[in-house]
Design brief:
Helix content is 56%, strand content 16%. Among the domains are: 124 residues, Rossmann fold (3-Layer(aba) Sandwich); 138 residues, no CATH class. The protein is of the alpha+beta class. The chain is built from 15 helices and eleven strands. Strands 2-1-3-4-5-6 form a six-stranded antiparallel sheet. It has a three-stranded antiparallel sheet with strand order 8-9-10. The protein has a two-stranded parallel sheet with strand order 7-11. The longest helix has 46 residues.
């Protein structure tokens, strides 16, 4: 319950303190006395939007504080615990500061918080009935909401399950409809991808192939020059008219062997000289083989040029390198697999839609059956409340209309049926009830829903202009 409300520099109120008592509290006063401002202040404590216009002339900020006893409000205590806020000894102090620039700060038991958390918490603390809420009764779309609010946790679970089943069914229908409506685009895309895949696969590309071909083309285009250089290298190693490097190294090795016979300490570099000669001989053999392999081959050069030209065309279309082209091929193979739905797969999707539809309607039927039972109890309690509001002859029932196509809220369209006087047939509330009768029905509904709440709920109920349209004995 609300223990205390403090207001500083809010609108026209310089300072005010209110300590409501337990049970029924009434605020009365002339028009302009500030009743609505108090309601606005309480609204800010439960998360309503703040405005710079609410800051009074007595300073650069407005401060609203409220103290709540949570001993009988288990949902609020759980909410605080889940959000890491200490509720102390079942107590909660909310502070809201509004600055002149419109910015506001929220504190819950001294800890900074957000307006979003405050708004969610506020629903568990205070239940507001505004001046214009009676108008909701004139719209039958809101009637289902009142009935479902009367249900217990099991009913709420049925409603959630029906809504979830509808969402799953709707998504399956959307996927099937999208597939059907995009069949032409799908076929065109599939044709394009298959052509691209055929073109890439027809080239039989290998990773790094273009680099290898470029190297080979360079050799063929410079074969004569390369062959002359390789032959010169061989001649300098073996020697032609003059002694070559290998022959000179062998003479050096012979002299070193003679030296080694006298001084064994030179054996290490003698072995190094022997190894060097062997490596020179291997290099000379490789150079000779390379020179002999270099022959002008115009036919092979034409093949390479043609192959590189084909690869370059593919690069311009599908990627800057052969590796990127091969990666693109893998991507379109995956996309083709997704687009190539067989008739069997499409039928499977249709069957899935049908199964999810059946699951939804089965769940919705359970919800509808429970609503039918719930409606009898709901109507009976509303009639009891109306009797206490000087309408002891009133009748109240719920009319059901089936929605064959279903909706997220199930298969039911509900409208409140009402008769205020004996002998008057039940008719839609919006068409028959006077303003005063509408007000009393709303008051009766709120009383019924208030008594029905599970595990506490919002223990503070605020009626703004509760007597609108009501007079006389009521």
């Amino acid at each position: 319950m609300l223990l205390e409300l403090r207001i500083d520099n809010f609108a026209l109120i310089e300072r005010a303190e209110i300590a409501p008592g337990a049970g029924f509290n009434v605020l009365t006063g002339e028009t302009g006395a500030g009743k609505s401002i108090l309601i606005q202040a309480l609204g800010l404590l439960i998360g309503e939007r703040a405005s710079s216009e609410q800051v009074g002339p007595g300073g650069n900020k407005a401060v609203i504080e409220g103290a709540f006893d949570l001993a009988d409000n288990a949902p609020a205590r759980r909410f605080l615990e889940e959000n890491g806020i200490d509720s102390g000894e079942d107590a909660l102090i909310i502070a809201r500061e509004i600055e002149g620039n419109g910015r506001s700060r929220v504190r819950l038991n001294g800890r900074l918080s957000t307006a979003t958390i405050l708004r969610d918490l506020g629903e568990l603390l205070v239940d507001f009935h505004g001046q214009h809420e009676n108008q909701k009764l004139l719209h039958s779309e809101a009637h289902l909401e009142y009935l479902d609010a009367f249900g217990n946790k099991a009913h709420t679970k049925l409603r959630s399950q029906a809504r979830d089943s509808y969402t799953v069914w709707r998504e399956a229908r959307r996927a099937l409809a999208e597939l059907s409506s995009n069949e032409k685009e799908r076929a065109q895309r599939l044709d394009t991808l298959q052509f691209q895949l055929s073109e890439i696969e027809g080239a039989s590309l290998e990773s790094g192939e273009d680099d290898t071909l470029l190297e080979e083309r360079g050799r063929l285009m410079n074969a004569e020059k390369l062959r002359e250089s390789a032959s010169m290298s061989v001649g300098m190693l073996y020697g032609d008219e003059e002694m070559g490097a290998i022959s000179m190294a062998r003479q050096s090795l012979k002299a070193a062997r003679d030296l080694e016979e006298t001084d064994g300490s030179v054996s290490e570099w003698v072995e190094q000289l022997q190894s060097a000669i062997l490596e020179l001989e291997d290099a000379a053999a490789s150079a000779r083989a390379y020179a002999e392999s270099l022959e002008a081959d115009p036919g092979r050069l034409d093949q390479i040029e043609s192959r590189l030209s084909r690869i370059n065309r593919l690069k311009r279309k599908y990627g800057g390198t052969v590796a990127e082209i091969l990666e693109y091929r893998a991507q379109i193979e995956t996309e083709i697999s997704g687009l190539s739905l067989s008739d069997e797969q499409i039928q499977e999707l249709r069957d899935e839609v049908a199964a999810k539809k059946a699951a939804y309607f089965a769940q919705a039927e359970k919800l509808s059956a429970n609503r039918q039972k719930l409606a009898l109890e709901f109507a009976s309690e509303v009639v009891t409340q109306l009797s206490s509001l000087a309408m002891d002859k009133a009748r109240f029932e719920l009319g059901f209309e089936r929605l064959e196509k279903g909706s997220p809220e199930g298969l039911d369209k509900i409208e409140f049926l009402f008769s205020a006087n004996p002998g008057q047939s039940l008719r839609p509330l919006a068409k028959i009830a006077s303003g005063g009768e509408i007000s009393r029905v709303m008051l009766g509904l709120r009383s019924v829903l208030r008594d029905r709440r599970d595990e506490g709920g919002a223990p503070v109920v605020v009626f703004d202009e509760i007597d609108t349209g009501i007079g006389g004995l009521t």
